[in-house]
Amino acid sequence: MSARQMKLGLFLWATGHHIAAWRHPDAYVTAGIDIEHYIQLARTAEAAKFDMVFCEDAAGLREANINIASQTSRSIGFEPISLLSALAAQTGRIGLVSTASTSYNEPYGLARMFASLDNLSGGRAGWNLVTSASPIEAANFGATGLRAHADRYARAREFATVITGLWNRRAAGHDGESFLVRDPLDIPPSPQGAPVMVQAGASDDGKDLAARTADVVFSAAQTFEEAKAFYDDLKSRLAAYGRQPDDVKIMPGVAPIVAASKAEAQAKYDALQELIPDDVGVALLSSYLSISDLGRYPIDGPLPELPESEGMKSRQALVIEQARRDGLSIRELARYFAGARGHWRVVGTAEQIADELQARFEDGAADGFNVMPSWFPGELDAFARLVVPELQRRGLFRKEYEGRTLRDHLGLKRPG
Question: Which family does it belong to (predicted)?
Fold first, then answer.
């Protein structure tokens, strides 16, 4: 039995992470605004002893050029802190993590919201810090355009300093480049001390911010070599901030499709792939590459040379690298990308998927995984029923929670 056990998060996303999940015959197209749907998913994950559920968020329709049916099924949804507050009342142990942007919030207000969720849930909250990379989001807040990448991260560093100071009850008062804060918070610490800090940036600025502030890092990597390089790089940066390697848990995204046989799992995946309209796949790819006119290039030709983005730099680099490495056309790349937005995809039996997860976990490329089911609830149910017991049988995953807070689950120190 392994003394070290992997961490598992469930990445919530309305009908599922596959771009065509809403077209699956058993999908619920209006799942994004059905609280009972989310309660069911959270309870399934909690029964399987997942560490956390995670809600991504964007302050705008990032995929605004995708056809209306797909956009509606993927984009409608609750504001995530409100949603997680509701889930806190319907669950007892599982962590509750939400994205919130440092570009379109103020630190005092955000600190107060997450501290409230942390107390409401008994110490199970976490904040996924993002800087927001979409011009569409910028337009919704009266900005003249997307701020430069370096400027967004400068603001994020100061934001993180202010918010952690508020949570950890350091001396009140901050007068900085971007923020002026006078008072301490009016909410006491939760049983875990402060919400868990999560980050997902993979640029140099993103990795440096994560090494400085994060407890958990979500990442995207197709190959073992990419995952290992990211893991080693980020862990090596921690010492500069007086931190130990185990102070940060790195959890790459994984999109598993599991069945009783490899052939059945492949058939499930192939059926989903057949549901992707080409224009939808290309539009999704365009949004992550920060290019508005990818559709003007021949769909069966290669990806054109692209300027470096001021948006999602790391995701753009990941996609371009895959296209060049595998010799993919725009159509092939779009169809592959549509399955999990650039994250690692694994198709097979419970044993085969457990083998893949175990290899990356034990060979130093991950501390756990952020699980991204292709469609809900079916693929989550299959993972919980088939893969989790196999990981438990191998001693790689818990059978019972170690404590009551998210920091307990993750093995993180209480701050302050």
Answer: Belongs to the NtaA/SnaA/DszA monooxygenase family.
